[in-house]
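Re: the 147-residue chain
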Amino acid sequence: MEEDLCYRQEYSLKGGEFARAGEVSRRIKDLLKELGLDVQVVRRAAIASFEAEMNVIMYAFQGTVRLAVTPADVTIIVDDHGPGIPDIELAMTEGYSTATREMRELGFGAGMGLPNIKRNADVFRIVSEPGRGTRLEMTFARDGRPS
């Protein structure tokens, strides 16, 4: 419910901006700490948001990260405008990566991004349309129980 909302923030990302990699997830982590959330919730949300941020920077043209904190949970939604994911099941396989050689040389592209997001979120949804983009929805229960 809107009246239960504690905090809402939106961040923009641009594909290819490796020099700014991690800025958004760091801001989310700092904000959640300032709000006094449980350290484990902060840690899991920071890991998942970093992985999602990197996927936008690595593969999409641009993206938006939306954060909502309520008394019950933390929700992070990442929408990108990029090539989309033709085979989500394959993309969710640990170790599978479509990273370029250049991305790997920068230390990215181990194929753990989506699996790490799923492992850290209490609720995870992914929807993708090839040629249009991808939406990731991650929810973290503030009391440690899935919402």
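The mean pLDDT is 92.
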